[in-house]
Amino acid sequence: MEHGPSVLSLAIVVLAALLTPILINRLKISFLPVVVAEIIVGVVIGNSFLNIVDPNDPWLNILSTLGFIFLMFLSGLEIDFDAFIQKAGQNKKSKVLKRPLPNTLALTLSIFGGILLLSLLFAFMMSWAGIFDDVFLLVIIISTISLGVVVPTLKETNLITTQMGQIILLVAVIADLVTMIMLALYSQLYADSSQPIWLMGILVVFAVLFYFLGRVMHHAQFLKQLNNGTMQIGIRGVFALIIMLVALAEGVGAENILGAFIAGCIVSLLKPEKDMHTKLDSFGYGFFIPIFFIMVGVDLDLPSMFQDSRVFIMIPVMLAAYFLSKVIPVAVLLRYFDIKRVSAASFLLTSTLSLVIAAAVIAEQIGMISDIESGMFILSAVIACIITPVFFKQLYPVHEEVNKVINVTIIGNNQLTVPVANSIAGGLYDVKLIFHRNFSDSRGSNSENMTFHEISEYSRESLEALDAFDADILVVGANDSSINWQVAGLAKEAGVERIIYRVDDPRQEGEVRKLGYELFSTMLSSKTLLKGLIESPNMIELLSDEETSIYEIHMNNYRYDGMILRNFPFSGDIIFLRILRGQESLVPHGDTPLQVDDKIFVTGATDYVEELKRELELY
């Protein structure tokens, strides 16, 4: 009886994929990205050293190709297209800014434009010096930035939502998009294909059609019912989209990874739930992608590479080009940030891996470069990915980015606002109470964590002069509803994220909710309190007691994302009562994992709750 191809090589590679992250964890070499470690392991078991894996094994070739395709899909999925939308207030004042930022999209486009021009300059210089002749390929490789390194690094340091973090992320997103399109054009121009380049337009047309079809399916209620258990209709739909666009890309003469990348962009635009994103990451980084990266290492032949004297020139020159092409354009940020932050950003934007490997593999497949030259490009990218996140973490003053208090601005000085302001001022909250000199029912005096400001009118100029909109929370609680309406509108234009709006007229509630304000109604509160006293008098007493109050914490710290509660490092007088996650309401237990964006309800000692709030909300 004949047997099919041996699975021995596959077994070795899968075992290597399993052991690699374990070794990184046990050896405490967290500075090394897992994908880089997988390439290094592939080098050890491959052609360069042990040579125990057959690089021509059909199982490995198929799974490695699928890993490559899935990697490009996840690269497209990683792109947050909302980052291209300038949000109101995104560039408001900050303690780390020298001056207000201009339009973020225009700023990042100009930075990437500088990166592209310098990449072209370095490519021509290398061609003129006889180091490497393919200028187009060099421009792609030098100008690309690895989202797969940038995003995890920003999340790990909890900087992804900061102003500098958003600039770094948007530059990386633009670079990923543009260089992917350039790579598609490169392969179309130089591959031995009889298909005309205009056929790629068909791929774009189908991508648009699939997007609108996806929107219809995404909102179809009957399909949501098929998204659990053994059906998992959402995952099936994503895989069908990937395969169809990959097949279509090959059909029009383009590279299959272009189809996969477009599929990722479509799914990103459809805004899948975090649970689906997690499942797709699990499929990719749990199986397919590690096989691809290990096989990249297996195919590298370092002994042969280092016999070529060009490697000692090529790799240092490439590393210098990677860094200089980023540090010079990023220097424009010195107008807004200090030199430490700008230098750190330059290093992180130097990280490059996935698309360099893609470009090297494709160029080698179409005969534009040799396997030795391909190995040089991949090795330079691996070295860059090892050193750049380390320099970023060493240079960036992460601790200075974290606020120590929540800034609250309260509009109106009356019997409702003053007692509330006094009760929360101090510790976690820095309160600023602003009132009109002709409409104050009570008076207060300034304290360390609370200041009173009397103004002649509620104009934009008067409020901005007091930094009223430089607040995490703004409460419009004046007795005059027209003042509340005016100030809330100004605050929304200024980009204040949380606006709590006092409503005394029930007819105004619907309009206030539509604007996205958090509603506080004295009438509704009184009715709720009276009902509570009648139905649950002990519960009302419990909630009103400062020692047993229930607190809400918004989990923003990526350091604890995925950590189960039994491993949570904080201990103290506190009880987790409930977790709101999207549309779900969870009763927490020891094996419940925390996730970013969770709304966590706790009760316990006030001091400890404030400490926990600072840690999880990064205030």
TrEMBL record:
Primary site of residence: membrane
GO cellular component assignments: membrane
A Pfam family of this chain: Na_H_Exchanger
Subcellular location(s) of the protein: Membrane
Transmembrane segments: 6-24, 31-50, 62-85, 105-129, 135-155, 167-191, 197-217, 238-270, 282-300, 312-337, 343-363, 375-392
Family: Belongs to the monovalent cation:proton antiporter 2 (CPA2) transporter (TC 2.A.37) family.
RCK C-terminal domain boundaries: 537-618
Top-level taxon: Bacteria
Keywords: Antiport, Ion transport, Membrane, Transmembrane, Transmembrane helix, Transport
A biological process term (GO) from this entry: potassium ion transport
Recorded topology in the membrane: Multi-pass membrane protein
Protein name: Sodium:proton antiporter
MF-aspect GO terms: antiporter activity; monoatomic cation transmembrane transporter activity
Record InterPro entries: Cation/H_exchanger_TM, Na+/solute_symporter_sf, NAD(P)-bd_dom_sf, RCK_C, RCK_C_sf
